[in-house]
Amino acid sequence: MLQNRFGRLAATALAGGMLMGAAACGGDEPATSASPSGAASSAPAASGAKVGLAYDIGGRGDQSFNDAAAAGLDKAKTELGLAETKELEAGNGETDAAKEERLRLLAQGGFNPIIAVGFAYSGPVKKVATEFPDVKFAIVDDEAATGPNISNLVFAEHEGSFLVGAAAALKSTKNHVGFVGGVEVPLIKKFEAGFVAGAKAVKSDIKVDVKYLTQPPDFGGFADPAKGKTAAEGMFDAGADVVYHAAGGSGGGVFEAAKAANGKAIGVDSDQAKTAAEDVRDVIMTSMVKKVDVAVFDFLKGATSGAAKAGTTVYDLKAGGVDYSTTGGQVDDIKTKLDEYKQKVISGEITVPKEVS
Amino acid sequence: MNAAESSFADRLLGRVRLSGLLSLAAPLLAIVFAGVVTSIVLLISGDPPLETLGIMAEYGAQPRSIVLTLNYATTYYLAAIAVAIGFRMNLFNIGVDGQYRLAALVAAAVGGAVALPGPLHIAMIIVVAMLVGAGWASIAALLKVKRGVSEVISTIMLNAIATSLGAWLLNKERLAVEVAGSNNIGTKPIAESGQVPGMAIIPGTEAKVFGLIILAIVVGVIYHVLLNRTRFGFDLRATGRSETAAVASGVNVKRMIIVAMLLSGAAAGLIGMPQLLGSSYSYSLDFPTGLGFTGIAIALLGRNHPVGIAFGALLWAFLDTSSSILQLHEISPEIVLIMQGTIVLSVVIAYELVHRYQITAEQRRVSKELAGGASPRPEGASA
């Protein structure tokens, strides 16, 4: 996930739509493709809504962040009977003007609601939403773009990371864990902050190694398994026995290193014990899941029934927007303790820091 | 220099010009060739070529698309000129990308930190950008002059160093501030006095053309005058043609290398200015990258000629603009990348073919005249 959004922020988004209103049933035409936009705007009264989705670079098929958004869209397509969906992705190194134009093309093409995936769309969404006040917009991972027709879908990544940090500390026999970040940007720092806080909450003297693969504007760290492997190998060699990655596609290398070192790894974004390469799944003790699909589906459900909520919706632990996964049963023995921490975070007894202290 | 004696590099970089009708034949050949290859690619991917081009042309002709195209082209033009300055004297400045990113970052930070009256503020930001670009390029120039390090190697490495340095600088403890509620970080936005207003010169749309398009035009004119109408330009071109000949005629080649590299770097510093001062007002994580490499392609496409580069930049910008409409019609936007690559290759190949035709035609003419007993006409220098 990370990879996309940050990925080279050149994403193109097009999403547009006219509000076709509330009637969300009917014509379930599940194809991802749609007829040319010209035809659509002249006949806006089709059954179901026309949904536009604008990805950052990478688009559908990145096995991470964008794919989670796509999963939400697919679910909505079958369950809500969307008339038509259109997915557009960004080009490399493009400017905000290109993103704006994509959103505008979607809006002009009669797509409504329109979802922009990734913070790079912040400025463009704000601008285009003003031009099309009747179209509902949603943006994932950004709170800065606000407006009466903009829904901001954000996640409490630090809270989820706190839980897997606690899990890492509970499972570590050497009192030494590691964190591999894809690219050193504020979003990934949130993962780091939560993870470190979670580990220290269990054992205040635990050693946490932190390593970022690349620095912006080089976003290669989200798609470089070799770099991920080297970084994780270094941590295992130095005595760590559990490594958490927030590095998108580079995570595969982290899992390989864990396998070779007989260590454990923690996945990110989706339940990676189900999605990673099969031979390394057994080293993934848990994953910090970020449910972009749920957020996208919820928004579409609201928008197609005429009840889209403008403003920020935080998908945190309480809302079930982030969580730890239990596939493989490796954290079953510490589940009680983890759920205890979870309750404390939800009740506010523990406040997880968003920034690295 | 006689065309027959020119090297491939001379022909590639436009230092040898075609004469007469042949100078028209080359670009036509290139367009036809690029069209054929693109059509084949479209057919293979299952899209009708004519319809695809029709969609692109129709979308590209809309007022808003024209504005977008002009804005992209402004940036591309500056990038290509920065590259072309080096090319004209055989310096391959691959580091334009790093020079421009570093310059844009520092200029944005300085611009955001101070408040000055309008024109002064803008001028200061632009001067800072040029100084930083030139300063970064000077490292490669000094390495070449003092230690004989190839500028290709050093500028590629300096690009990587610029990335790391930029990441270090773009940090909340240094030049960056957090954007509230966003996962982005950027430099402090430049105050209104430092912003260059756009111009609504295209009828039928409210979208505005970058005010700094004028800067691009001015840079193009300066490039032309400097190279073709000054002694410096003559020395520069002479050094590019033949270093030994230049030395023999009293040109200080080392000084020329440093000056050309600094000029190239200063021009690279300008690349980010239209976007920075005309649209984003801050250098953040999503500031466009890779423009230096686009510049190399466009400089080749325009054969280092100020007008040729303008056409190249407009064509490139048009293709970029129309890629979004392709996605809406279920045509992969990567088609545009293929087109751009094909066009550059076509231009290189077409010019080379026409040059070779010209050379053989000349040789034939000369041998004919020799056989007829007439003395061959002397060749004029083509530089």
TrEMBL record, chain A:
| Membrane-related topology note | Lipid-anchor
Domain ABC transporter substrate-binding protein PnrA-like residue range list: 56-354
Keywords, sorted A to Z: Cell membrane, Lipoprotein, Membrane, Signal
* UniProt key word Membrane: yes
Keyword presence, Protein transport: no
**Record GO cellular component, one term:** plasma membrane
Where is the protein localized? Answer: Cell membrane
Please list which residues make up the signal peptide: 1-24
Name the family: Belongs to the BMP lipoprotein family.
The protein's name: BMP family ABC transporter substrate-binding protein
UniProtKB/TrEMBL annotation, chain B:
Q: Does this entry carry the keyword Iron? A: no
Q: Transmembrane stretches, by residue range?
A: 21-45, 65-87, 99-116, 122-143, 152-170, 209-227, 257-277, 283-302, 309-329, 335-354
Name the predominant localization: membrane
Q: Membrane topology for this entry?
A: Multi-pass membrane protein
**A single cellular component GO annotation:** plasma membrane
Where does this protein have coiled-coil stretches?
none
Q: Could you tell me the keywords of this UniProt record?
A: Cell membrane, Membrane, Transmembrane, Transmembrane helix
The reply on keyword Nucleotidyltransferase is no
One example of the protein's molecular function in GO is: transmembrane transporter activity
Compartment(s) = Cell membrane
Listed InterPro entries: ABC_transp_permease
Give a single Pfam family match: BPD_transp_2
**Name by which UniProt lists this protein:** ABC transporter permease
Q: Which organism is it from?
A: Planobispora takensis
